[in-house]
Amino acid sequence: MASDEYPVKAVGWAEKTEYFSRRATGEHDVQFKMLYCGICHGDLHMIKNDLGMSRYPVVPGHEIVGVATEVGSKVKKINVGDKVGAGFLQESCRSCEMCTQNTENHCPNLTLTFGSTLPDGSITYGAVKFAKAFGAKVTVIGTSESKKKEAIEKLGADGFLISADPEQMQAAAGTMNGIIDTVSAAHPLMPLINLLKTKGNIIMVGAPDKPLELNTVALLLGGKSVIGSGNGGIKETQEMLDFAAEHNVVADVEVIRMD
Question: Where does the Alcohol dehydrogenase-like N-terminal domain start and stop, copy by copy (predicted)?
Answer without folding.
Answer: 26-121
